[in-house]
């Protein structure tokens, strides 16, 4: 539900009461939309080609890879094999790397979502001195590039004993995810009519109850999109893990794939199948939450 | 149930005095309407009573208890918002049950209370719907239902009808009045609509710029407005005002305007006379009190006018006319057959003419409240 829809719910008539515009004949509609659809299809195809190529490559024997382009495999589907995957899954490193990635991504996402939704509540619904200044500072933090903090934080982690640990990476991702997360949640919350909170207050709810029973359920679309953003970002991160976990025993999948690239040159059977494995989880997450994702992105923008 | 008392309530936003020394007692079980134009402080006063605003000075009592520093949930009040403020993600049932669940009532009792409220408001078939699936009128009833399941000491209503269409508003107006008779709970009702105030309130408190102007029954406010503002605000169409100088004329008084004169007799004459020769006086006449060109002249105040516009309303006509450069509006029976361009006499019984001091704006009628 978008912020606009919420206001509508609280104030005006439901959609069903609106008169329907008269529709044009189906053929005319199809014809007028055809150019747009064609362009969209072309763009979608263009975007899909690399991923599709990766998928096909991951099912090809290594010798074929050096012999011809991946599209050739489409003409000879019989040459495709799952041996690459068997190889990858039998090699302990990639399984361990996937597990490490999950170990970093899940807490870094949960922490960001929980802290941001609470912080945004405080920024929107509670009155306290310095509230606006804190918000301005948060917006300012959004422009600090992550790369600038790598060296100082690495030094700090060295002192704290966090360097080379998963916890350190989780903390780093959480810290750098929070400014945008709080910004997004705050903007979404400001679309929640204040009357709702006041009604809840009169109904006898305290702040915790209002957060849990009113704000959190209404903020679900924004929370879902925030969760997906953060999950994808952390799952796909290479730079931060490379800096903090580069030489560690347990590394995330991105670092593992990257090291394959360096050690053996184009170790493509391993790289393509491991890459595809690492793509699957974010894809599942995205498709299961995409309904919320689109709405949530709109919700932040169109208040 | 409980009485509600505002005792010298002051609410300030920075330099802006939103409520200025409001003292008002609402009796146990009374239906009081706070009315005034937007920005007059009526909603602020209500929000202070609800505990949604901190007060700057004075006291608010619910029953015998000073509630100044109590949070809303400890004040035992229920509020109906202009926007209804229904929780959009909850069903009608859960909306109504929200507060009593928070108060940890047993499940069976919660269900019984919600069922009873739904029965009173005719919401039985809608309990599983979400607010988004309801019409404006139904949402309004859910908002009322959410208030009545609480069985609070007082209901606070902040313009609850202003989002409804005209027909539904009239219907719901009667429904709320019936509800009040049935439950007997104290109601403080805020509106900017004087018709709502007149039709619903047992007593009406008129506010302007944060200051209470007059409190009384609808009849008192209509017949004896204490000042120019109340006179102009209560009644529809609004009262006509003419300001001129008093000229003493034997026993009577003439009101001298630009190029015209009005003879004031009876009580109105006496009130104007009390101001003295040459003093400035404002008289007020309600549109519905005018008669067109009546015979005889005893006890009548006559205005010779020229008719500019006639609006047909069905059983009556609204006549816009000019007298001494001022517009005069009269509500007359269609049978009067008034036409545009006519020159005619509009007359009001002098007992119905209000007289005011234009400087202090107060009524000069000896009987009227100040």
Write down the overall mean pLDDT of chain B. 91
Gyration radius of chain B, to the nearest Å?
25 Å
Helix content of chain B: 25-40%
What is the C-alpha radius of gyration of chain A, as a whole number of Å? 24 Å
What would CATH call the class of the largest domain in chain B? Alpha Beta
Strand tally of chain B: 20
SSE succession of chain B: EEEHEEEHHHEHEHEEHHEEEHEEEEEEE
Q: Which of globular, elongated, flat, extended, rod-shaped describes the shape of chain B?
A: elongated
The largest pleated sheet of chain A is described as: none
Report the structural category of chain A. Answer: mainly alpha
Runs of chain A with pLDDT <50, length 5+? 1-20, 298-303
CATH class designation of chain A: Mainly Alpha
The overall strand count of chain A is 0
Number of helices of chain B: 9
Number of domains of chain A: 1
CATH superfamily heading of chain A: MetI-like
Counted up, domains of chain B total 2
* Main pleated-sheet profile of chain B: 6 strands, mixed
Oligomeric nature of the chains: heterodimer
> Helix count of chain A?
15
Report the CATH topology name of chain A. Answer: MetI-like fold
Describe this structure in words.
The complex is a heterodimer of chains A (303) and B (370). Chain A is 78% helix and 0% strand. Chain A has 303 residues and is mainly α. Chain A has a single domain (85-301), classed as MetI-like (MetI-like fold). In chain A, helix 14 packs antiparallel against helix 15 (268-301). A six-stranded mixed β-sheet of chain B has the order 6-7-8-3-9-10, sandwiched between helices. Chain B is elongated, with a radius of gyration of 25 Å. In chain B, helix 2 crosses helix 3, helix 2 (92-102) packs parallel to helix 4 (136-148) and helix 3 (107-121) packs across helix 4 (136-148). The mean pLDDT of chain B is 91. Chain B has nine helices and 20 strands. Chain B is of the alpha+beta class and 370 residues long.
């Amino acid at each position: 539900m978008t912020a606009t829809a919420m206001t509508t719910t609280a104030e005006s008539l439901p959609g069903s009461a609106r008169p329907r515009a008269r529709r044009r004949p189906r053929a005319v509609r199809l014809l007028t939309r055809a150019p747009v659809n064609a362009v969209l299809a072309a763009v979608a195809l263009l975007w899909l080609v690399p991923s599709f190529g990766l998928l096909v490559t991951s099912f090809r024997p290594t010798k074929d890879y050096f012999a011809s382009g991946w599209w050739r495999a489409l003409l000879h589907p019989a040459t495709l094999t799952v041996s690459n995957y068997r190889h990858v899954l039998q090699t302990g490193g990639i399984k361990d790397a996937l597990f490490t990635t999950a170990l970093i991504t899940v807490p870094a996402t949960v922490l960001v979502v929980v802290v941001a939704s609470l912080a945004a509540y405080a920024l929107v619904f509670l009155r306290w001195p310095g509230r606006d200044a804190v918000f301005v500072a948060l917006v300012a933090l959004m422009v600090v590039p992550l790369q600038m903090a790598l060296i100082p934080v690495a030094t700090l982690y060295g002192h704290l004993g966090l360097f080379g640990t998963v916890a350190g990476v989780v903390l780093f991702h959480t810290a750098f995810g929070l400014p945008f997360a709080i910004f997004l949640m705050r903007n979404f919350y400001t679309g929640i009519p204040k009357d709702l909170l006041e009604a809840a207050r009169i109904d006898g709810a305290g702040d915790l109850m209002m957060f849990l029973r009113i704000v959190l359920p209404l903020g679900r679309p924004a929370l879902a999109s925030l969760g997906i953003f953060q999950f994808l970002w952390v799952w796909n991160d290479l730079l931060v893990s490379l800096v903090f976990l580069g030489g560690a025993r347990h590394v995330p999948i991105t670092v593992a794939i990257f090291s394959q690239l360096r050690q053996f040159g184009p170790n493509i059977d391993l790289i393509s199948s491991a890459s595809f494995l690492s793509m699957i989880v974010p894809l599942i997450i995205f498709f299961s939450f995409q309904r919320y994702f689109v709405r949530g992105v709109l919700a932040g923008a169109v208040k | 149930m409980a009485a509600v008392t505002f005792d010298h309530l002051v609410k300030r936003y920075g330099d802006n005095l939103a409520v200025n020394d409001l003292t008002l007692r609402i009796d146990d079980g009374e239906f009081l309407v706070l009315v005034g134009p937007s920005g007059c402080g009526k909603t602020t006063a209500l929000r202070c009573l609800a505990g949604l605003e901190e007060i700057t000075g004075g006291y608010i009592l619910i029953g015998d208890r000073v509630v100044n520093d109590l949070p809303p949930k400890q004040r035992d009040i229920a509020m109906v918002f202009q926007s209804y403020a229904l929780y959009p993600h909850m069903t009608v049932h859960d909306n109504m049950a929200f507060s009593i669940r928070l108060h940890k009532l047993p499940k069976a009792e919660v269900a019984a209370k919600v069922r009873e409220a739904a029965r009173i408001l005719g919401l039985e078939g809608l309990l599983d719907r979400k607010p988004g699936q309801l019409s404006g009128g139904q949402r309004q009833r859910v908002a009322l239902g959410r208030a009545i399941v609480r069985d609070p000491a007082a209901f606070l209503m902040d313009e609850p009808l202003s989002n409804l269409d005209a027909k539904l508003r009239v219907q719901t107006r009667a429904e709320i009045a019936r509800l009040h008779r049935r439950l007997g709970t104290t109601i403080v009702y805020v509106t900017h609509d004087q018709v709502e105030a007149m039709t619903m309130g047992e007593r009406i408190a008129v506010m302007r710029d944060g200051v209470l102007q007059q409190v009384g029954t609808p009849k008192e406010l209509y017949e004896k407005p204490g000042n120019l503002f109340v006179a102009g605000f209560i009644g529809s169409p609004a009262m006509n005002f003419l300001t001129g100088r008093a000229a003493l004329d034997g026993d009577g008084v003439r009101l001298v305007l630009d190029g015209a004169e009005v003879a004031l007799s009876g009580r109105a004459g006496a009130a104007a006379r009390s101001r003295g020769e040459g003093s400035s006086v404002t008289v007020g006449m309600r549109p519905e009190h005018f008669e067109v060109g009546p015979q005889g002249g005893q006890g009548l105040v006559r205005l010779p006018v020229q008719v500019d516009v006639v609006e047909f309303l069905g059983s009556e006509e609204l006549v816009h006319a000019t007298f001494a450069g001022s517009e005069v509006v009269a509500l007359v029976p269609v049978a009067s057959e008034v036409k545009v361009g006519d020159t005619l006499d509009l007359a009001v019984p002098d007992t119905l003419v209000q007289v005011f001091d234009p400087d202090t704006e107060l009524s000069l009628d000896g009987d009227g409240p100040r």
